[in-house]
């Protein structure tokens, strides 16, 4: 009965009276070390923001830690971090929506358009005025006398400035240039029948209205059916079978079909078959017979030779020419 029990842990030592323990009983415990170089000040309004995502908060801290003039484009950030381009773009949009970032396109004096990014470590605060760069003074020639620094010019107070004194020009705000857009491609015109008839129009509208039986996604309004009917009539005019037209327009549809009329119009235009060739086009051209020069018998030596007309052979004509020539 006198053996002590060692199962229960010993009681915690009570704190000294009059003192308060600052160490939390649970949660995070900070071990802070004072930075003397290589640090950036971040406000709790950013570190504990209740709307921004963790990627956006980390990206804002990274941008604020960079020196002025550093590249912070999407391609540069994608190469720097393992996150994808889509996630980094979404984080930049979050920072722009909350006022931590502002991006604008500015045209330089050389004509080049660049993207200017401005980072705010505290959104809503007035930005400090930008100091104008100091001009370099040209060195004056050395004088033999002892040089003395010039006395500073007195700064006139606003009350003593004349009303017509010219003031420094206010820098103009950067001009926003819209992003370049790709030129719109010209739409191919819808094919038209050479001889439109009432029968072709009725068959075309019936075929278009019947497409929804085979593909419910191709339920076309009446106005679109009337507009697309000449294209189907051009198919029928070229002796295309209605079942072939239906298969060309309703087979292998994308999912989902956002614009049925545009899809049908595109297939009518791009898949238009050529006209059927006629019987004369399928017949091979007749072969030309070789010209055969008939045989002739020479009237002098009775030798056979080829010529179109009867007469003398080459040897006899030579003898005749020599006999006819005077000596």
Concise account of the structure shown:
The protein is mainly alpha-helical and 327 residues long. It contains 11 helices and 4 strands. It is elongated.
Description of the structure:
The protein has 327 residues and is mainly alpha-helical. Among the domains are: 44-119, Arc Repressor Mutant, subunit A; 198-275; 295-324, no CATH class. Helix content is 32%, strand content 6%. It has helices at residues 44-47, 54-65, 74-80, 85-98, 198-209, 211-214, 222-237, 242-250, 260-270, 279-282, 314-324; strands at residues 101-107, 113-119, 295-297, 304-306. The protein has a two-stranded antiparallel ribbon. A two-stranded antiparallel ribbon has the order 3-4. Helix 2 (54-65) crosses helix 4 and helix 5 crosses helix 7. The N and C termini lie far apart (173 Å).
Shape: elongated
Quote the beta fraction. Answer: 5-15%
User: What structural class results from the helix and strand content?
Assistant: mainly alpha
Helix and strand string, N-terminal first?
Answer: HHHHEEHHHHHHEEH
Strand arrangement in the largest pleated sheet:
1-2
Helix coverage percent: 25-40%
Mean pLDDT: 78
User: How many helices in DSSP terms?
Assistant: 11
- State the end-to-end distance: 173 Å
Low-confidence stretches: none
Counted beta strands: 4
As a whole number of angstroms, the C-alpha radius of gyration is: 48 Å
């Amino acid at each position: 009965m006198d053996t002590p029990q060692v199962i229960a842990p010993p009681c915690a030592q009570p704190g000294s009276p009059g003192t308060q323990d600052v160490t939390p009983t649970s949660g995070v415990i900070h071990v802070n070390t004072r930075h003397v170089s290589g640090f950036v000040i971040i406000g709790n309004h950013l570190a504990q923001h209740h709307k921004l995502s963790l990627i956006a908060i980390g990206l804002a801290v990274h941008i604020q830690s960079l020196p002025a003039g550093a590249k912070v484009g999407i391609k540069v950030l994608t190469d720097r971090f393992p996150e994808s381009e889509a996630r980094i773009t979404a984080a930049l949009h979050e920072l722009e929506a909350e006022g931590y970032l502002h991006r604008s396109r500015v045209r330089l004096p050389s004509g080049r358009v660049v993207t200017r990014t401005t980072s705010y470590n505290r959104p809503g605060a007035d930005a400090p005025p930008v100091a104008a760069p100091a001009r370099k003074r040209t060195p004056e020639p050395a004088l033999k006398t002892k040089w003395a620094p010039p006395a500073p010019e007195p700064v006139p107070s606003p009350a003593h400035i004349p009303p017509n004194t010219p003031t420094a020009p206010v820098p103009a705000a950067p001009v926003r240039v819209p992003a370049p857009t790709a030129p719109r491609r010209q739409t191919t015109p819808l094919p038209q029948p050479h001889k439109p008839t009432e029968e072709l129009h009725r068959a075309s509208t019936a075929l278009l209205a019947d497409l929804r039986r085979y593909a419910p996604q191709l339920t076309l309004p009446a106005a679109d059916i009337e507009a697309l009917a000449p294209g189907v009539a051009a198919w029928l005019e070229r002796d295309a079978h209605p079942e072939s037209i239906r298969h060309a327009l309703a087979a292998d549809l994308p999912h989902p079909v956002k614009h049925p009329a545009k899809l049908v119009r595109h297939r009518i235009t791009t898949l238009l078959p050529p006209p059927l060739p006629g019987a004369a086009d399928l017949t091979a051209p007749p072969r030309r017979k070789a010209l055969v020069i008939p045989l002739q018998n020479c009237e002098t030596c009775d030798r056979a030779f080829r010529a179109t007309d009867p007469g003398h052979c080459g040897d006899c004509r030579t003898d005749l020419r020599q006999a006819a020539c005077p000596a």
